[in-house]
Amino acid sequence: MNDTNNMVIVITGGAGGIGMACAKALKQYKLVITDYGQEAVNKAVKELKTAKINAIGFACDITDKTAVNRLKVFTGEQGHFKGIVHTAGVSGTIGNPEKVFNINLIGTDIIVNAFYDLAQNGSAVVLFSSMVGHTIPPNPKYDESLRNPQSANAFKNTASFVGDSADTMYNFVKRGVLLLCKDNAMRFGQKGARIVSVSPGIIMTPMAQKAAEEHPERMKQMEKMTPAGRNGKSEDIADVVKFLVSEDARFITGTDILIDGGILTQLMNPENQKLLAG
Ligand SMILES: NC(=O)c1ccc[n+]([C@@H]2O[C@H](COP(=O)([O-])OP(=O)(O)OC[C@H]3O[C@@H](n4cnc5c(N)ncnc54)[C@H](O)[C@@H]3O)[C@@H](O)[C@H]2O)c1
């Protein structure tokens, strides 16, 4: 038994593609697996336990502050808080910009604030942005709302720049996650804790599969222009997350790690930018 066995890591979206891969990569820790529905959580925990991973489940809607508070208390009871890997989110395919804003950005703000209370020396928070978050330019007119998603009119103001596309709203809120990470670094740092974000490219989880079904040609083209020569796998993300929560990443905080096989640079080339449009 090594000392990480008593360290607790929470994985939100733990029943999802990337969440489950992160759980497997972080098998040396005690894991709290959380996701929206109880059944999905039970299934994920069962799979992990079968693989001899120390996991316990807790169903929780990350947009519900009371539920997140319960998750925090539950986590605190499990042992030494090492960190949280916050993968829970939805893509623009759900078609509702307000839900995309609430789940991906307000949910992230709620999680960060709740787990700040548990953060201590050596804790790490890993947020999930996306490569598309890097395609939205800085602009104080919407950045203020993205930085303060729970403030009155934050959604309405952001929507006035986005229009009614849930895909475009996804890109904006993922910029918001980058900003939340930077904005929180100092207060986490004062506790000896770190906060980072990762920006996956195209990772073939159920989420990306759905997008691939909606835009098959675009997905094929994107795979072709990826310098790494393929789309990503959940494990490509999980291995980096494992590093980011570890002591090897002790001097990395308040920043983002792009894990995209090099495709973003290609997409930012003006002649390819139409591929980014929802
Ligand atoms: N897959 C990709 O290509 C890709 C690319 C860039 C960024 N990302 C980001 O990576 C993260 C993980 O994505 P994934 O591909 O594993 O998706 P996924 O759909 O497989 O998993 C997401 C999980 O989040 C959960 N979830 C959704 N709403 C929730 C809520 N309100 N409360 C609690 N849980 C909720 C879902 O039930 C699901 O299990 C997301 O934040 C996503 O935006 C994914």
Descriptive overview:
The protein is α/β, with parallel strands linked by helices and 278 residues long. The chain has one domain (3-269): Rossmann fold (3-Layer(aba) Sandwich), CATH 3.40.50. It is built from eleven helices and seven strands. It has helices spanning 17-25, 38-50, 65-76, 97-116, 140-147, 154-162, 166-189, 206-214, 216-224, 234-245, 263-267, and strands spanning 7-12, 30-34, 55-57, 80-86, 124-128, 194-200, 256-259. The protein has a seven-stranded parallel sheet with strand order 3-2-1-4-5-6-7, with helices on both faces. Strand 1 (7-12), helix 1 (17-25) and strand 2 form a beta-alpha-beta unit. It starts with 6 loop residues before the first strand and ends in an 11-residue tail after the last helix. Nicotinamide-adenine-dinucleotide binds next to helix 1, helix 4 and helix 8.
Compute the number of strand runs. Answer: 7
| Beta-strand percent range | 5-15%
Q: State the CATH class.
A: Alpha Beta
**Weakly predicted, low-confidence segments:** none
Number of domains: 1
Task: Give the second-level CATH assignment, the architecture.
Answer: 3-Layer(aba) Sandwich
Count of runs of 4 or more consecutive helical residues: 11
Task: Output the strand order for the largest sheet.
Answer: 3-2-1-4-5-6-7
Helix and strand sequence? EHEHEHEHEHHHEHHHEH
Helical residues, percent: 40-55%
What class, by secondary structure content?
A: alpha/beta
Q: How many angstroms does the end-to-end distance come to?
A: 48 Å
How would you sum up the major sheet?
7 strands, parallel
User: How large is the radius of gyration?
Assistant: 18 Å
So, the CATH homologous superfamily? Answer: NAD(P)-binding Rossmann-like Domain
Mean pLDDT, nearest integer? Answer: 95
